Amino acid sequence: MSIDDIEAEVLKLAPQARARLARKLLESLEALSDEENERLWADEADRRDAAWDSAPGSGRPAPDVLRDARAKLR
User: Fold this and answer.
1) Cα dihedral 8/13/19/23 (nearest 10)
2) How far is CA 67 from CA 1, 59, 60, 70, 72, in A?
3) Cα separation values, 12 from 6, 7, 16, 23, 26, Å
């Protein structure tokens, strides 16, 4: 099964079952070694950097982002 197939099936579960699964998944991540956590974060940083580099001009000015965030908090 692909991750998309698994996700689709999991989303069919009752909310309590999804919460239980989410809790187990989060616990499994907490059990990772420090080295594995660092590697995963480095991989994520590399992925985000590559995505940023592949779409120049796709960022938004910080004042706009902050304005929108403040508006959502009101």
Assistant:
1) -60
2) 42, 15, 11, 5, 9
3) 10, 9, 11, 17, 20
Query: For 1-74, where are the alpha helices, taking DSSP H only?
Result: 3-10, 15-30, 34-54, 62-73
Work out the widest C-alpha separation in the chain, in whole angstroms. 43
Assigned token pair, 72: 């959502």
User: What's the chain's Rg over C-alpha atoms?
Assistant: 18
Q: Does the pLDDT at position 56 exceed 90?
A: no
Query: Which pLDDT value is given to residue 55?
Result: 85
Distance of CA 62 to the CA centre of its chain: 21
pLDDT tens digits for range 9-31: 999 999 999 999 999 999 999 99
